Amino acid sequence: MSSDTELQECEDCLAPAKAFSVIANETRLSILEALWQAPERPVGFSELRKEVGMRDSAQFNYHLKQLTDHFVVRTDEGYDFRQAGKKVVSAVLAGSFNEHPHLDPIELDETCAACGSHLRATYEEETLTVACPDCGKAHGNYPFPPGGLNDRTSDEIMDAFNQRVRHLHCLAADGVCPECNGKMRTTVKKDTENVLGTKVRVDHHCEQCHHQLHSTVGLSLLDQSRVVTFYSDHGIDLCTKPFWSLSWCVGDETTTILGDDPWRIRVSITLSDETLDVTLDADMNVVEIDQSCPSATDAESVA
Asked: What is the pTM of this model?
């Protein structure tokens, strides 16, 4: 499906309206759930019918046939998922269809990059937001499925949120849409629309489903090996540190635009008395790294 293809224009596909009508049935959803919970797949017809709890074999066969080829595949050994079937079950388990939980605000230990006040996390409309309650500066605002709140403490929720955001941007930066696996295009532009309230922002746009992610330049450096090592040398595990606690991730006070034709952007990261200057191009590729110790007479420079 190309980027300008209409949703209904897939000749070889089950029409969207028909697809939703197929799964809008309690028995068929029970079949998908039984497949999901099976210790091993494929699952034989009789075993699957037993798990669903339907005595009428003919009636069960009718519902199973409605799912077959679109949500379920039949093999010589039995029945297994097609990808669409897995998506239906995972969406239900994530709570996107049937859960609307309330989460009290979470007071965080981390402080605002702008004013130093303690940050707060709030949950509304399946979106988790980290912001400063005093000055209002946003430090993170991303979708977080309701299922992610289940059986987790506040600390566990925030840790899951931190890892989820990192994962979303890691996929996007690699050109893979986290929603549909389509091709993701990355562009850098000046933030004239004040989307992030920064000088410059990185936009990831899916050419297939049009899903979008916006971020600061610094957020693309969370898994950069030299940056990770720089933190490790100072006794800090960057892989588990909340992204909202890193000023160079949530703002661009330490970001310098060296040029925009072509783009050259420098992010400066300071720990103790050392600074790591990372220069990136328009594709968020690192083109230069300099490490220096301002207090030393023989400041080290590492390309």
From this structure: 0.70
